[in-house]
Design a protein that fits this description.
Blueprint: H1 2-26, H2 29-42, H3 46-69, E1 80-81, E2 85-89, E3 97-106, E4 109-117, H4 122-130, H5 132-137, E5 141-145, E6 148-155, E7 160-167, E8 171-178, H6 182-190, H7 194-198
Antiparallel strand pairs: 1-3, 2-3, 3-4, 4-8, 5-6, 6-7, 7-8
Helix pairs in contact: 2-3
Length: 200
């Protein structure tokens, strides 16, 4: 009788184990790290709590960068593109931020698109966009692209230039080109979904 009870208990525990494992696997890394930081904070381990919170914020940036990569446009007709790449920086490096980019080629022509989010660098670009005289003194001209203000710099002789666009004050888009005409740079700029980007 006693052995049957022990066997029944083992079966019951074994039956519960898969559920516990699944629950642990399903738990988000960010939430797990934050939970650990909360425990450390309550126990007075402030250094450990800060470290885990910094780590959690870096994980969030990584998740954000993966979603932002999907917003980099496909190559225009006749062009080829490399896979999109992403880089995340903590606040200790240039104030932090998320950067995603993609390179496009067509013969000798090359275009690169970079989107930077949550970076202090945005402040200087927004200052130029809000001050036409400032933009002009830097060699650029103002243009509206799909409802967004942009600074355009283009050299007709060298057939190279760049377009800078700030979206909702949080994202800076830079479209650079070599051996391309200005229309191509504008087309690539217009291929970005600014509305979807603003939701990130």
């Amino acid at each position: 009788m006693k052995s049957r009870s022990i066997f029944a208990l083992i079966v019951l525990v074994a039956g519960c184990l898969p559920m516990q494992v699944v629950a642990a696997e399903d738990k988000d890394d960010v939430l797990t790290t934050i939970d650990e930081a909360v425990k450390q904070y309550k126990s007075g381990d402030y250094a450990g709590a800060v470290s885990n919170l910094d780590y959690a914020s870096q994980l969030v940036r990584q998740k954000k960068s993966e979603r932002m990569k999907e917003l980099l446009p496909e190559p225009l007709a006749g062009w080829q593109a490399n896979p999109a790449s992403a880089q995340t920086l903590g606040t200790a490096v240039f104030g932090g931020g998320v950067t995603v980019s993609r390179d496009y080629k067509k013969g000798d022509a090359a275009v690169s698109i970079e989107i930077v989010s949550d970076s202090p660098v945005l402040q200087s670009v927004m200052m130029m966009l809000n001050n036409p005289m400032f933009a002009g003194s830097s060699g650029g001209s103002l243009k509206t692209i799909k409802g967004q203000r942009a600074i355009v710099k283009y050299d007709d002789k060298g057939r190279n230039g760049e377009i800078n666009i700030v979206v909702v004050g949080r994202f800076m888009i830079t479209v650079k080109g070599n051996q391309v005409d200005l229309n191509t740079l504008v087309e690539y700029s217009e291929a970005i979904d600014f509305i979807l980007l603003a939701k990130n």
